[in-house]
Design brief:
Immunoglobulin-like; 8-stranded mixed beta sheet; 5-stranded antiparallel beta sheet; 1 helix; 13 strands; globular; disordered N terminus
Length: about 200
Amino acid sequence: MLGVAAVLHPSVAIAQEARVESGGWDARVVGRDGAAVIHEADGPPLDGPREFFYRPSPPFDVSSRWVLVQDSTLGVAFSQPSGVKGGIGGYVGDFYLGALADVRAVEVRALVFNIWGEYAGHLAVTVLVDRGAGERWEIHPSWGGMTAQLHEHRTSIVWINRVMFDDESIQEADLAPVGRAWEHVTGTDFEGLADEPPIRAVGQ
């Protein structure tokens, strides 16, 4: 079990605990920023074209890097390591969520990087939900029409960006922890999200 989160939304009378379950992954804490904890876990092996005569037995021994920001000020948290996979057809997200309050909509965002550590894009998915405190669920959005070489994908930073509560109030994430995660992945200063909107998942 990793990480502790408390809901600060006024409609929640008692702070609740949100934990990231390793689920067999070697999840570890790599940073903190205020109430947020930044975790890193090994995702699935990379998928994509390989050298023609070299055919390693699966699984390929280079794994995806899943970096997630667990923000204790939001009413939804990751219930286990989550991230984005790349392949020939597009990006696919594996997001495992848990409600700490009664929620009606959740937006998850991701920054993706190729195997060389270069920034490759900003992704988003919004899901309409009817979930009460303590419920867990998973979503697997997909993104197509990308200009990046998707088979080169390796690393993702994911975070809960916005939540709509049962009373239709909206809470947005503080991006400072996302910046800290960016610095962990790239070794460079975070200059904020680009002005262009994120690419939204198919059907969103």
